[in-house]
Amino acid sequence: MKKLFFIEGVDGAGKSSLIQELLKRPAPRGCSWYQTVEPRVPPAPHVTPGMAQALYFNLDRRLHLEQLATLPNDTIIVCDRGPMSTAAYQGAAQGVSMHDLTSLHHLTVSDFRLDFDFHNIILQLPFAEALRRVKERDGKVSEDAVTIMAEAWNFYDRRYSRVSIFGTEHVVGADRFIDDLVTVVYGIIERN
């Protein structure tokens, strides 16, 4: 069974930086790494926020899982974003209900339960720090973008105390040096 680790968290949490540094290390237990991202192709501008984007992301995930299912079983797949990002950004931030997102998710992944061991590594950090990092990376950030990011952050913050329908959750404090963060996440991958 392939291990699929979705690296999740708000913008600025350090997902891409973590993956870049993580994959410099040898994969555990003689396995090989496979790096990917969701969505693989951003939605066209006419795909409106909310349910249309949630449908788009879930269809893209379905096609993505079909592709990933062809990889050898000793592959550790590390994906930048995944179902929790869809729930945070298209759900909490755009008004799609958790019930609808859960239904879409089950339709998307139900055929793949025997192919993958799903894990979500959630990078947690204070909202002010995430916003500071985004402004440092992107420059000016619109008020709408800040509002959406805040709603997504609130979603991730509330999720920590609930059981996930999206796979096993591992919450990691992202307000640390990148080498320390990589060591912690590598340990999670190695143990699972």
Which CATH architecture? 3-Layer(aba) Sandwich
> What percentage of the residues does DSSP assign to strands (E)?
15-25%
Question: In what order do the strands lie side by side in the largest sheet?
Answer: 2-3-1-4-5
The level-1 CATH class: Alpha Beta
> Percentage of helical residues?
40-55%
Q: Roughly how many Å is the radius of gyration?
A: 16 Å
User: By helix and strand content, what is the structural category?
Assistant: alpha/beta
In DSSP terms, counting alpha (H) and pi (I) runs of 4 or more, how many helices?
A: 7
The third-level CATH topology is Rossmann fold
Can you identify the CATH superfamily? Answer: P-loop containing nucleotide triphosphate hydrolases
Shape: globular
Count of distinct strands: 5
Q: Average the pLDDT over all residues and give the rounded result.
A: 90
Number of structural domains? 1
Low-confidence sequence ranges: none
Largest sheet: 5 strands, parallel
Separation of termini?
A: 12 Å
Give the quaternary arrangement of the chains. Answer: single chain
Helix and strand pattern: EHEHEHHEHHEH
What does this structure look like?
The protein is an alpha/beta fold and 192 residues long. The protein has a single domain (32-175), classed as P-loop containing nucleotide triphosphate hydrolases (Rossmann fold). The chain is 47% helix and 18% strand. The chain has a five-stranded parallel sheet, with helices on both faces. Helix 2 (51-68) links the parallel strand 2 and strand 3 (75-80). Helix 2 (51-68) runs parallel beside helix 4 (98-109). It is globular. The protein starts with a strand and ends with a helix. The model has no long low-confidence stretch (mean pLDDT 90).
